[in-house]
Amino acid sequence: MTIDAVITWVDGDDPRHRAKRIQHGGQELRENEDIAGSTRFSNLGEIYYCIASLNRFAPWLHKIYIVTDEQDPCVDAFLHEHFPDGHIPVEIVDHKTIFCGYEQHLPTFNSIAIETMTWRIPGLSEHFIEFNDDLLLASPVTPEDFFLPDGSSVCYATRCSMLWTKLTRMLKPQKNGQKRVTFKGSMYNAAVVAGRRFSYLKLAHTPKALRKSTYENYFSLHPEHMLKNIAHRFRHAEQFTSQELQYLLLQSEGRVQIRPVDKYLFFLQPKEREGYVAHKMSRLIQMKNCKFCCFNSLDKATVEERAQITAWINERIGL
């Protein structure tokens, strides 16, 4: 089975990219952290750790595609330095390529919209694994950690109640006059699109094992859902998580295996509480079965905390 990796990446510190965000965003959007906050576009070199972890722990991958907006993370020199004996081929894919025919929706600063279109990468394998650049592998993995021998996808998730999520969304106050955009809310929206009534899958911050044909077949029958999801330049409360939709479609066909996530995933989002990051990192050291790490919003960590995190990553990956 040929399996590719897709990484969505942006350097929000690039002056050209920042200027485009300001031009298309407006003050109201920039004031909403969940929609267009600077942390959503921050770049601290996480892409290098992500790619290094794939080469170290999943060398069986066929190709790595990096999807970006007129940018280039320039990973060639890094890979030649740390993997001189060879590495997984890398290709940069611009947003214009995956939005071909839908260029009116560019530029986009919306991860949900971008992930809705990654399946349109030319030459992409039927089976692919999608990463955000703040995700990395923490130990050796096999294809069976993502796809079963019959091609079924592996999904790391827990079951969640539709009714309870709908109730909590109704009770949650708006922010700056707008409905909040949440990770859970966009998954709920996908469940509504898929026609679910009672439960959906609460996805974790893990790599997503996906099938190109599932997106292609569904969006050819329901182009209005794709168009609605890519119409917003910034994240919007009405959008749905495309990976959630795919997993629910596969689940209805009996082509997905749901696995518990707690023992495999380490998730860290720095908080202002003193000692929080140190406590979390001590827990990470004790995790024996950890396969995936997500270091979210590292720009919010202190210099000392980032040093502690990167020291662990460097040692684990062998950089």
How large is the count of helical segments?
A: 13
Largest β-sheet summary = 5 strands, mixed
Radius of gyration: 19 Å
Order of helices and strands: EHHHEHEHHEEEHHEEHHHEEHEH
Which characteristics define this entry?
319 residues; single chain; 39% helix; alpha/beta; Spore Coat Polysaccharide Biosynthesis Protein SpsA, Chain A; 18% strand; 13 helices; globular; 3-stranded mixed sheet
Q: How does this structure look, described?
A:
This protein has 319 residues and is α/β, with parallel strands linked by helices. The chain has one domain (3-317): Spore Coat Polysaccharide Biosynthesis Protein SpsA, Chain A (Alpha-Beta Complex). The protein is 39% helix and 18% strand. The protein contains 13 helices and 11 strands. The chain has helices spanning 15-30, 33-36, 46-57, 76-82, 95-98, 111-117, 162-171, 183-193, 212-221, 223-230, 242-252, 276-286, 303-317; strands spanning 3-8, 63-68, 90-94, 127-132, 135-137, 153-161, 199-203, 208-211, 256-259, 265-268, 292-295. The strands form 3 sheets. The protein has a 5-stranded mixed beta sheet, with helices on both faces. A 3-stranded mixed beta sheet has the order 5-11-10. Helix 8 crosses helix 11 (242-252) and helix 9 crosses helix 10. It is globular. It starts with a strand and ends with a helix. The relative contact order is 0.15.
